[in-house]
Specification:
There is one protein chain. This protein has 88 residues and is α+β, with helices and mostly antiparallel strands. The chain has a domain of 41 residues: YefM-like fold (3-Layer(aba) Sandwich). The chain is built from 3 helices and 3 strands; from the N terminus they run βαββαα. It has a 3-stranded mixed β-sheet, with helices on one face.
């Protein structure tokens, strides 16, 4: 199915549902295709959070809530440098 980018915004939920059911949706601008919506392959059908990949919106939400990175994550790198600041 071909859909003009300008019209896709108003139909996005329906287009996503059609792609999820297996239909290939191609969005075009002018005479050029710019993006293809397809259902994920079996390996990709997992929540984003479960994949370990957090989008920037998730990061900002955590920051607003005062929550930091995942447990065990740190931004402290002191053990990697000597007293002069040179890498160990």
């Amino acid at each position: 199915m071909l859909v003009d980018v300008g019209e896709a915004g108003d139909q996005l939920e329906a287009l996503i549902e059609r792609a999820r059911r297996g239909e290939e949706i191609v969005l075009y601008r002018g005479s050029r295709s710019v993006v293809r919506l397809t259902a994920p392959s079996g390996a990709d059908e997992r929540p984003v959070a479960a994949s370990g990949e957090a989008g920037i919106d998730v990061v900002w939400d955590l920051a607003r809530e005062g929550r930091g990175a995942a447990s065990g994550a740190t931004s402290e790198h002191g053990g990697q440098y000597d007293e002069a600041g040179a890498p160990d």
